[in-house]
Design a protein that fits this description.
Helices cover 34% and strands 27% of the residues. With 218 residues, it is an alpha+beta fold. The structure holds copper (II) ion.
């Protein structure tokens, strides 16, 4: 994220959410432009022009076609956004039948363990925050849990945050789509050193990943 307003998705799942965000932004902006436009039009079209008593505009107390329109149009917009978001969330939460890499992520007061199934295990410290190394374009399954209190796994560039709850492991898939190093942190206040519970994610090519994996295999 690095402070910019526009999301820069680094996984396939994040792109789905960024598109959803874009759709909401566009719909909101379109509605705003129409509403502001009509307000400004009315303000200028019917502003007082010198005379103290002008003719009254047409008076009426109901207009069925208009009322139906301003009920139906917002309803349709909200319904469309709901359906689109529902499908986007289903995409993000979908688990692949056969992930390429499985990492058991354990959050604890106050750090992270990244245990790759088949090795290696990455253990962090405050001085040396742990790094989650992921292969570009492959399906990575994260199995997330906590061994003490509630924490939350958050990588802003993945547009994704998931609670780590003791005794209730949850799984999600990541398909990294952009090489780079991304900041991650605990996003659930979990005690004294919560603010120091950072990690990083480094997305590398498949061959670099395999090299890293065999170099760190113990
Ligand atoms: Cu925490």
């Amino acid at each position: 994220m690095h402070g910019q307003m526009w999301p820069s998705p680094a996984t396939a799942q994040a792109s789905v959410l960024a598109n959803d965000w874009l759709l909401f932004g566009t719909a909101g902006l379109a509605v705003a432009v129409i509403v502001w436009g009509l307000i400004l039009f009315s303000v200028f079209r019917w502003r007082r022009k010198g005379q103290t008593e002008g003719p009254l505009p047409p008076q009426f107390d109901s207009n069925n076609p208009l009322e139906i329109a301003w009920t139906a149009i917002p309803l349709l917009i909200v319904l469309a956004l709901f359906v689109y978001t529902y499908r986007a969330e289903a995409d993000v939460e979908r688990l692949a039948p056969k992930p390429d890499v499985i990492v058991d992520v354990n959050a604890y007061q106050w750090n992270w363990t990244f245990a790759y199934q088949g090795g290696p295990t990455v253990q962090g410290s405050f001085a040396d925050p742990p790094q989650l190394v992921l292969p570009l374009g492959e399906t990575v399954r994260i199995v997330l849990t906590s061994s003490d209190v509630d924490h939350a796994f958050w990588v802003p560039d993945f547009l994704f945050k998931r609670d780590a709850i003791p005794g209730h492991p949850t799984s999600f898939d990541l398909n990294p789509s952009k090489l780079g190093t991304y900041l991650g942190r605990c996003a659930e206040f979990c005690g004294f050193d919560h603010a120091l519970m950072d990690f990083s994610v480094r997305v590398v090519s498949s061959s670099d990943f395999n090299r890293w994996r065999s170099a760190h295999h113990t």
